[in-house]
Amino acid sequence: MLALDVLDEKNALKIAEETCEYIDSIKIGYPLVLGTDLKIIEKIKNLTGKEVICDFKVADIPSTNEKIAELTLNYADGIICQGFVGKDSVSAILNIARKKNKKVIVVTEMSHPGATEYLKNVANDMADMAKNLKVDGIVAPSTRVERLKELKKIVGDLFIISPGVGAQGGDLKEVLNVLDENDYVIIGRAIYESENPKESAKNYKMQISTF
Ligand code: XMP
């Protein structure tokens, strides 16, 4: 899953087009949507034929979450929300997504060092909630493989999307030892900031498919 966190349309479309034969899915977030607008999603989808997931880490009260999900899922194939806001807030998003046949992915433990201060302590409970609510997937860290393993055990057949390989130092092989074919490794800067994004995407694809 390519994390396409560039800021302008031209660059985003160029990288998306160059790399799309080597990726399965594209994740965009505030950087690109605030730098352009939600219609960038249609443009990426038309150009690449790939699904686009919006990483908005939605974290509000149920009625506001509902509005954000409604607008986002008019365009995107899925939306990422925070789990720490509780099951009523996550359910509000899930209700909208189910009507539109779209995906909901819940953040459990984030990949950056700060996630060990607070999130790590409640991440297992959030994974449990995600499983009980029957969302589609969770986000879990490639930077802490032991935690990735534990979270995967909790969520069972929900898929995992996992950031942290590349710029954040996660080891691809260790991560692939934990994930299975339904899961996704998220890679951003190591592709879009490389001198040759196409080659970088191709190289990751090769490592993943020959693992
Ligand atoms: P890099 O450039 O580090 O990009 O390969 C990683 C992408 O993933 C996002 N990110 C996260 N998203 N939970 C999330 O929902 C996380 O723990 C997490 N860690 C990183 C980041 O914003 C970027 O798009």
TrEMBL record:
Broad enzyme group: lyase
Organism encoding this protein: Methanococcus vannielii (strain ATCC 35089 / DSM 1224 / JCM 13029 / OCM 148 / SB)
Q: List this protein's GO terms for biological process.
A: 'de novo' pyrimidine nucleobase biosynthetic process; 'de novo' UMP biosynthetic process
Boundaries of every Orotidine 5'-phosphate decarboxylase domain copy: 1-204
Annotated signal sequence range: none
Q: What is this protein called?
A: Orotidine 5'-phosphate decarboxylase
Gene3D superfamilies linked to this entry: Aldolase class I
Q: Which InterPro entries match?
A: Aldolase_TIM, OMPdecase, OMPdecase_AS, OMPdeCOase_dom, RibuloseP-bd_barrel
Q: Which residues bind substrate?
A: 5, 27, 111, 188-189
Task: Tell me which Pfam families the record gives.
Answer: OMPdecase
Recorded catalytic reaction(s): these are: orotidine 5'-phosphate + H(+) = UMP + CO2
Keyword terms of this UniProt record: Decarboxylase, Lyase, Pyrimidine biosynthesis
What is the active site of this protein?
A: 55 (for ompdecase activity), 57 (for ompdecase activity), 60 (for ompdecase activity)
Provide one Gene Ontology cellular component: cytosol
SUPFAM superfamilies recorded for this chain? Answer: Ribulose-phoshate binding barrel (SSF51366)
Specify the domain of life of the species encoding this protein.
Answer: Archaea
Q: Name one GO molecular function term.
A: orotidine-5'-phosphate decarboxylase activity
What EC number(s) does its UniProt record assign? 4.1.1.23
Give the pathway annotation: Pyrimidine metabolism; UMP biosynthesis via de novo pathway; UMP from orotate: step 2/2
Q: Which family does it belong to?
A: Belongs to the OMP decarboxylase family.
